[in-house]
Design goal:
Blueprint: H1 2-12, H2 17-33, H3 37-75
């Protein structure tokens, strides 16, 4: 409990909301999976890359479905 309170106090000192959110996620990875700080940062960056890849793939899929939809209606 003391560790969590200490981490919360430290996160309040960070002024930039983006950096604060990044640090919060890294702290959660450290506590949940037992990673050290360096590996937790790597895992967080990999998670961000996968989120962007998923969003890009979803956008391409939605665009393809939008374009192919009228063609499917012709043959259905």
């Amino acid at each position: 409990m003391e560790e969590k309170l200490y981490a919360d106090r430290q996160s309040r000192d960070i002024g930039n909301p983006r950096i604060r959110a990044r640090q919060w996620h890294i702290d959660r990875l450290q506590k949940s999976y037992g990673y050290d700080k360096e590996n937790a940062e790597k895992v967080f960056e990999i998670m961000q890359i996968r989120q962007v890849e998923f969003l890009f793939g979803s956008t391409c899929g939605a665009f393809a479905a939008y374009k192919v939809g009228p063609i499917q209606k012709l043959f259905a």
